[in-house]
Every structure is written in C-alpha cells, then in structure tokens.
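--- STAGE predict ---
source: upstream dedup step, 1 unique chain passed
mode: sequence only
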Amino acid sequence: MSILYGERLRLRAVERNDVEKFHSWLNDPEVTEGLALFLPMSMRDEEKWFDNLADRPHEEKPFAIETRDQNEWKLIGNCAFFGFDWPARSAEVGIMIGDKSVWNHGYGTEVMQMLLRHGFEALNLNRVFLRVYAGNGRAIRAYEKAGFIREGCLRQAVYRHGKYDDVLLMSILRSEWEPMDNQEKS
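--- STAGE serialize ---
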C-alpha cells in the first residue's frame, strides 16, 4: 500500500521505530481517556503488538499519522480499520492522536476523511462505523464533521473511573459520503 496524502497529513505504514512513541502515548492518562485501554501498557506488549502486525490481513494493518513539521514529517498518532464484515462490506475504524500538542487542530477530522476515502474507494466498503465514549465530545465533533451519524447508544456499556458510561455507535454509508466527497472535489 502506498502512502496516503491529505491536505496537511499523511498516513503511512507503521514502522518499528514508531513503537516507542506509541508506548509513551498509551501510558498517558490524557491520551487513553478516549481509548478502550485501562491498564498500563508495557514496552514488551507494544513490541509484541508490532511483531504480530505481519500476520494481519493487509487491509487491517494500521497507519501512522504524520503532519508536516518544517521540512520533515512528525508522527502524531495512528489509525486503522478492523472488524471487517466482507459480505456486508462493513468495517470499524479507530484513531488515536497521541501527540497532545496537536489536539484541537482539526487533524482528527482530516484523518477520518482520508480513511473514509480509502475505505470507500480502495477497500470498496459500503459502511464504516466506530464506537466512541459518550463523554468524548471532542472526538464526537470530529466524527460528525467527517460525516458520521449517531446510530445508537450502548447504555452503560463500559466501566471507567468508578462509574458506568455510555458508548455511542456512529457510522457513515458510502451513499452519504459520496455527495460530501464530490463537494470537496469541486
């Protein structure tokens, strides 16, 4: 797979030298607040995750998210499709912007737009969905800007910080995305 380029970002294959940065982010409570992680991640666990990527189907391999910083690219997170249902042409998507210095700059929305183009045009998906904690307003806004629609709520589906929290299901269909994509191109 080639590198995917957006307006300010690029998505490339994850490399072994990214693992140390991922490990740092996955042990930062502010970063993991919106992720389905609740225990510390060891460097060995993260290295094992990377080693197992070679055995995953090509379409499920994660992307490293980079933004231009002066004359070089800076790693700011990762993202991936997973949980493919090929007969239904559906997959779940996940994203982590781990570099807190770039939060609230619209990168989450741009990454989702890039992933949707890849999912609908390259992978021939019909539906892309995600799960997000109901209290994660920043992520919800980014997903809505990218065209995702709330389709359901898993009530008290997760236990975090001593209380139960809802998990929202959001999705976008190819037929909803195509008019948005055509509008961006014109």
